[in-house]
Each structure stands twice: as C-alpha cells, then as structure tokens.
Amino acid sequence: MNRRVPSALVTVAALFASTGVASAHVRYVTPGSDPVSVLEFLVAALSDPFNLVVLGLGGVAVGVGLAGYLRFRPAQHDIAVFRSSLADYRDLLPWLLRLSVGLPLVGAGFSGYFFAPIVEPAAPTFVRLFGITVGFLLLFGFGTRLVAAVGLVAYLVGLALNPALVLAVEYVPGFLALALVGGGRPSADQLVAKLAADDRTLYSRIDPFYRAVAVPFVERVRPYETYVPTILRVGLGLSFIYLGVAQKLMNPGEALAVVAKYDLTSVVPVAPELWVVGAGLTETLVGVMLIVGLFTRAFSGVAFALFTTTLFGLPDDPVLAHISLFGLVSALLVTGAGPFSLDAWLHARDVDAGDPAATDEGLVGGRITSNDSR
C-alpha cells in the first residue's frame, strides 16, 4: 500500500476532475444493464486500500480547501466584483429560466418523449404537441406564469403515473421559478403588458385579463420572488443527490456499464468501482452543498463543469435532456444562494463585522425585476 500512495496523490486530482464523464443520466445510455448487488459492489470498492486512499485524499482536499478559504478569505475584493458583475444580469433571469425549460421541452416534443428520454408514452401525438406547445410558449414568453403552472401539473401527474420521471425532477424548481418571476424581458408578456397598461391604446380597452387577473396575481406573488434562488438550489440539490445516490451508488450495474461502454478507465486508470463511487460521491457533495447554500456559486460552477465533461465525454448522450440542468445551474451563478442559506448567514456575519468587501449587491440573491404581469 505504501508503494501505491504516491500514485494515489496524482490519481485523486485526475479522478475528481474527470468524474463528470460518468455522471450522466446512466439510463439514457445503458438501458437494460445487468443488475449488480449494491452491498457486494460497495464492499468490493471500499475494501481496496488504494480506493480508500484516493477517496480519502479527495475528501480531505475538499475539506481543507473550503476551510482554508473561510479562514484566510483570499482575494475578497475580486470575489465581490465577480459577484456584483453576475448580479447585474438578474433582470435577465426570467429569460434564462425560459430558455432552460423551453428548449428541452421543444426537443422532447420533436423527439416524442415526455420530459425524460426514457419516458415515451403510448400517445406520441399528444406528447409531441404538449412539448412543442409548452416549450415554444415559454421561449416566446407568452402567458409564462400560466404555462409554467400547466407544465408543473403535467410533470407531477406524469411522475405519479411513471416514477421514472424523477430523472427530470429539475423541471419542478424550473417551473416554480418561472411561475414566480414571469416572462421578464425580452418576452411577449412584457410587450402585451405595456400595451394593456397604457390607457391610450386600443388594446387596453379590449383586454379584460390584465387589470382583473394578471396585476393582482403579480402583486400577490411579488414578495415571494426573493425565494427563487432557494427554490432553484434546493431543487437542483435534490436532483444531484438522486443522481449520485440512486443512479450511481444504489444502481452500480448501469453505472459500471457506462464506465465499460466508454472505456473510462483508459482516461484515468483506476478500477471501474472507483469511477462509480467517485462520481456518486461528487454528485452527492454538490447536491448537499447546494441544498445548504454554502459556496453556492462555486459548486454551481463545479456542476456546470460536470455537465460539460459529460457532453464531450459521452457522445451519444441526449444533450437536450441536460439543457435544463445547464440553464438552472447558470441561473444560480447569477442569483447566488438566496435566503435560508449558509452563504446568507456568512454574508450577514461579515456585514456585522464591518468587512468592507461584504457588499450587499449580488451576494445572496434578491428580488428579480420583471416588467410583465403575465
């Protein structure tokens, strides 16, 4: 074992940097893989001293890195400028959310599946019409809140009928966020709202919906817009934990099949079991950190890197199925952690301590400005 420790020091960095290649939705690329006993798999993976050293070094490296940052806080002004720059895009957040949800739905409609590629109902015409219609309405930003509510209900009904749809659970926070922020700009909702709000336009005289329904609803939900970052990170965090635990650690047969199919052991020469455990633990860690809201932007960046690695590492993986994850993670880069997060607590502590680098802007989310009432 002592002879293998030096090589473990080199391997751990490469493994955790490349583990995203095995982090796709494994059912998409390896349907029908042979089942493998979870207990036997974990015993085999964790009984190898080399595997334990690599995983242990990875965990220590992450822990020391995070603790070291909290202790020494390097480049605080640079980080504050970075956060503030990202926060400047907050008024475009509704547009980003619409693209994140609308594009994969259009792709699902044209491909004939319902939210997730492994769910192909017996009524393909309805599925195609649903995906294309809801997706394009979101892309155009027309009736955004209503369309998002319809999409959310459709997903939840589908999930109740087919639990496999849990693979696409990121649509839940996406739809909820859109129901709160609306279409934003640029969108058809913004254009229609401006026409309806101006008493001098002909349209304002024939639209009974704007003042009677849309405006009161927007005023009712406006106080909850500040919780959009919380909804996104908790929803994405649960999705990552599911992918890491249920799809990797508790389903090693299909995960091992991914490693074998793409010869991932030639990329980083370690045992297939270490690939699977490393990918599962990495995704689980990202999920936990997003849920608690600690280093939210940093771990959103890690998640984005995992998806990018998957995109280039698994050539036949359905890219459209991951656009929602790409977009929602990008939204968290803009918003930060939001309320009920450790990031917010750390920020409040720094402000109380008089830290000049702890600016209010761009650190913990905030209200998303929106000019539409649809």
Short description:
This protein is an all-alpha fold. 67% of the residues lie in helices and 0% in strands. It contains 18 helices and no strands.
Structural description of this entry:
The protein folds into 2 domains: 22-65 and 76-90 and 242-352, no CATH class; 93-228. It has 374 residues and is mainly α. The protein has 18 helices and no strands.
Overall pLDDT? 83
How do the SSEs run, as a string of H and E?
HHHHHHHHHHHHHHHHHH
Termini separation comes to 64 Å
Give the overall shape.
flat
> In what range is the share of β-strand residues?
under 5%
Keywords:
single chain; 374 residues; mainly alpha
List the helices and strands and how they pair.
Layout (H helix, E strand, L loop, with lengths): L4 H14 L7 H4 L8 H9 L2 H24 L3 H12 L5 H19 L12 H17 L3 H18 L9 H11 L6 H10 L4 H5 L2 H13 L6 H22 L2 H10 L10 H21 L3 H18 L9 H13 L6 H11 L22
Helix pairs in contact: 1-4, 6-7, 6-9, 6-17, 8-9, 9-13, 13-15, 13-17, 14-15, 15-16, 16-17
